[in-house]
Amino acid sequence: MKSYITALFCVITTSVxxxxxxxYSNEFMNIGVDAAALGMSGxxxxxxxxxxxxxxxxxxxxxxxxxxxxxxHSSYFANIANYDYVAFAKPLDDRSVVGISLIRFxxxxxxxxxxxxxxxxNINYDRISLFSTADYGLTFSYARALPVQGLNFGAxxxxxxxxxxxxxxxxxxxxxxxxQFETANDWxxxxxxxxxxxxxxxxxxxxxxxxxxxxxxxxxxxxxPETTEITIPKLQIGISKLVDFNYDYTxxxxxxxxxxxxxxxxxxxxxxxxxxxxxxxxxxxxxxxxLRAGVGNFQNELQxxxxxxxxxxxxxxxxxxxxxxxxxxxFTDIGDQSVxxxxxxxxxxxxxxxxx
Length: 356
What we know:
Elements: H1 2-16, H2 35-38, H3 53-56, E1 68-76, E2 81-93, E3 96-112, E4 129-145, E5 151-164, E6 168-182, E7 187-194, E8 199-205, H4 207-216, E9 228-231, E10 234-245, E11 249-260, E12 268-269, E13 274-285, E14 289-302, E15 308-322, E16 325-331, E17 344-351
Antiparallel strand pairs: 1-2, 1-17, 2-3, 3-4, 4-5, 5-6, 6-7, 6-8, 7-10, 8-9, 10-11, 11-13, 12-13, 13-14, 14-15, 15-16, 16-17
């Protein structure tokens, strides 16, 4: 029983505990969407060109010719946590596009055993209740073609909602900016600045519920967590090239540099910034069948003997597109080479031209 209460308490305190600047705030927004992109280890900043561009680089929305919708689902921690995503984008004219997307990352039906023992010290299982901890990210996207040929611009306005049962909840707001440029010889370049103004989250904590949890794990000497947190900016720089072979075959090669303005375990890390590369490939046949592979998330992992070992996260994916409907699958950590989250990811993309 005590272990259940302690686990519950840890979920609450680690989810809302923060400082003025918190390194890993709103990390659910960094997991990624779209099995096609995840199959290439997210190395899509320069060439993303569909409804999912609202997440990867909103400038890519300019490539849409019709309305599009996307859906995705994946599970983590042996199906304990569910990650769901839905997006829609609509061209306004030949120079501007708008989009909206929603991400939900949640653990549902968590046992709340803080009231398991009544005032007389009796165990009463009827006093067990359920609650969910859920993170929501709602993104509004706008993209516009700039006067320079091949240069597009996009921006995101994000609303973050995080809920931990009746114990605590927060609201957050942030902005992203992205640009893409395509040369005359089909080289593509992209830049995506996430949380460029920092994303601010303000927590509201139910003090009575918090005290109930404190009493349930007496002796832990826990204090009320801070109620504000800030997500620091991140920068993604990408380059890609698509090559055609004998009309029927294509090979897309893409490379990303993902920069965080902090010192961590990335393969390149300084006191100012850390850089993590990602490389992705997509082999296509008659614009219908796709095979994808990628590698990223290079980390210097500390071993038990205090030595460091380089780890990485390989990925693999397949896709099928026909008449405006595209189904993709990705496995995001082949051979368990990384400690990062891995999963089987499925996504669906629908171009509304299929209905016309």
